[in-house]
Amino acid sequence: MMSRQHIFRDKAIQHYRQSHERDILPRIVAPQVFLFLWILLGLLLASTVLTWLEQVPTRVEGSGIVLDQNRAVNESDSSIAVVFLPAESVDKVHNGQFVQAQVGAKELSDAVVLTVEPGIKSPNEIKLRYGQAIAEPAVVAIIGFRPALLAQEYAGTLIHVQVLVGTQRMLSLLPGVGRWIGV
């Protein structure tokens, strides 16, 4: 009996079978796009680490009044003001902290907390002692300016202050992230 011969060569059949057995992955993303995505992921991770490490200042805002130099008991080469800060800042504000102040249109950066009165003062106490009407209880702090303001010019002027009370991580400023990272 005559052996049956294939019309295809054995080598061609073997090549055909091997090509069907290989896994062929579809080319969804071009290599350049894939590289770009890895670079983008690296930049995202680097910016997250930098944001985690960066510290930003935290401030407590308040307002007050520049005192007349004749009423003030202080060194003669500095002016002082009394400021009223929110009650929740009672543990944050201390002597020697730096203050950014604005008297009218004038920005003052060379100011410091001289004294902080102990405890939280009620609006009535503040009205009786300083003649200022405020709506909520407050922490009373005395700040000093160097160089001195012209007391006659600025006495009785309203002042807006920001007391530098510390720093916090920049990442904690994102909504929800501060609670998640425990800040």
What characteristics describe this protein?
single chain; 183 residues; alpha+beta; Elongation Factor Tu (Ef-tu), domain 3; 5 helices; 28% helix
Description of the molecule:
A six-stranded antiparallel beta barrel has the order 1-2-5-4-3-6. The chain contains five helices and six strands; from the N terminus they run ααββββαβαβα. Mean pLDDT is about 80; it is low at about 70-75. It has a domain at about 55-170: Elongation Factor Tu (Ef-tu), domain 3, CATH 2.40.30.170. It is of the alpha+beta class and about 180 residues long. A hairpin with a 2-residue loop joins strand 3 (about 100-105) and strand 4 (about 105-115). Helix content is about 30%, strand content about 30%. The longest helix has 23 residues, at about 30-55. The protein is rod-shaped, with a radius of gyration of 35 Å.
Quick synopsis:
By secondary structure, this protein is an alpha+beta fold. The protein has helices spanning 10-21, 31-53, 123-130, 151-154, 177-180, and strands at residues 55-66, 79-86, 98-103, 106-116, 138-145, 158-169. A 6-stranded antiparallel beta barrel has the order 1-2-5-4-3-6.
Shape: rod-shaped
CATH architecture of one domain: Beta Barrel
The main β sheet shows up as: 6 strands, antiparallel, barrel
Number of strands: 6
Strand order of the largest sheet: 1-2-5-4-3-6
Tally the helices: what do you get? Answer: 5
- Identify low-pLDDT runs: 71-75
Q: What kind of assembly state do the chains in view correspond to?
A: single chain
**Corresponding CATH superfamily of one domain:** Efflux pump adaptor protein, beta barrel domain
Q: Fraction of residues in helices?
A: 25-40%
Q: Helix-strand pattern, N to C?
A: HHEEEEHEHEH
